[in-house]
Task: structure prediction
Amino acid sequence: MTNVVITGTGLYTPEHAIDNEALVAAFNAWVDNQNTHNADAIARGEQPPLAHSSSEFIEKASGIKSRYVLDASGILDPERMRPKLPQRNNDESSIQCEMATNAARQALAAAQVTPSDIELVIVACSNLERAYPAVAVEVQQALGTSGYGFDMNVACSSATFALEMAANAIASGSVKRALVVNPEICSAHLNFTDRDSHFIFGDACTAMVLEHSASAVAELRYEILGTRLVTKFSNAIRNNAGFLNRITDSDPLALDKLFVQEGRRVFREVCPMVAQLITDHLASLELAGSDLTRMWLHQANRHMNDLIARKVLGRDPSEEQAPIILDRYANTSSAGSIIAFHLHRDNFASGDIGVICSFGAGYSAGSVVIRRQ
Result:
């Protein structure tokens, strides 16, 4: 028992949505253009023709039906196939700061605290739009919080890892209240010309207020019973974009500078790792899968979530027990499990126990067991 409670959550959803049909139409138009351009090489057998995608393929492979993005026009342009966002001046709010403050204000209102009550801000996400200054410090200034802030990146597990960092800071007495925000612009690192992954990601930002239970005033409180993290190195999910690209003379537009994964290998290796993490974590708290009312799992793939929940619970999960939001939001990296928690806890009764769990590149996985007070 940590005496740390989650008292408020917030969610920023971009205004643009792209369903599978629109995404597939743009992708297939790009494929047709490429096959026409390379017709001679294809005829000579020097390269195979590119294959079309389909809505049926996407939904069967992932369970995704739609996604929200910061910009749809660039993604749906067969001549561009990536978002188009204007570069902002240094004296303008950054995109991620804007997303973060939007979600954070919702979380602060739910927790019934003011920005000045916050002593720690952690911005945790899979990609940050600049190296420095830290986006968290910019968010701190934009909101008017006190104390300090820092950025962190553990890919899709960033939110749960940040939850542990914030909970530890509160439990140790270092701070009384913390704000964790996860501004995920996943469309920026997705290869929209890759048939196997062009449908995976969406954009969103989540926020959470954590407090010492003695200081909390909100009616709805979710006590953090414990956290557990694990990492294991793997190249199965990778992005090679980095500040050394310009001095290693590597191609900054090469495909490995975007999201790349070996999907089947990830499924085979990550699912048992995550199920074991949750099971062991519950056991350390003298709990079992049967004690869980809800599992707010990372929203990457419907089949992965079903398998993990089945291993932990010992049976097939119900829609209520392991809610899915990726059909509407797609994979929003570290924000996914927090979106599920934000949207699917209304009927969580006092004393009910649940687990927030995320997993992804690294490999990394984080488990946060909570109880409604």
